[in-house]
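Researcher: Go.
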Amino acid sequence: MDIALHTKKMKSKRIVRLTDTRLLRLFKDEGISGAKVDEEALEVDRIGFQEMLEYLTHHEVDYVVTLNTSRLWRSDIVKVLVHRELKKYGVDIRSIEQPQYSIHKKDPSDFLINGLMELLDQYQRLEISLKLGRGRNKKAQQGGYAGGNVALGYKVEKGKKSLVIDDRQAKTVQRVFDLKEQYTSWTLTQLAEQLNEEGHRTKQGKLFTKVQIKRILDRKAFYSGLYHYGEITANGKHQAIL
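Model: Structure:
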């Protein structure tokens, strides 16, 4: 796949001939002409093409010049990918053997391929989501941290995927349950006011509200050592606070 980058010497509304352009750089892929596709990343998997895209990020270019568009793609999927990348940089294609070719011309097949690729992209995202969900469910069934918001009293150490106790926050959690047991008739608002008066704060360093107190009380089973994730409940691997 041989690709030459050109820029115009002068701007004009008329069609510019190749003699009116200046060669900037030549890119070449050794071996088979055309291009391969990285199906997971949905991008053209050729070293020369990727080097060209890197060049476009730092230089002003008007045209990618090639002998024939078949040097750039051999399938409609690759064609759409090439068009997508070049349009990002406002670059058109000049083909020596196809002088009238332009990526800006409307082609009904492009709409079809673009639609199919959008569906493929959605399918891949859904497939990844399902795989992640299965992995998280399996971890939850074993009592391990499966992701999501970390409850007050715990933290996730950097580089690890397990819950460990945050000593300062754990004292706050314990104090909530102590107050609830000591003052059974107190409302959630009264519990929050007492915590705030004693200097306790949320993870974000803010004052407690009745909503946050209820959330702590509702997690009594979790703070006692059980792990709950979706419909799964198991003996947690995390250390109990209560």
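Model: The beta strands are 2-8, 21-28, 37-38, 43-44, 63-66, 92-95, 154-156, 163-165, 226-229, 232-235.
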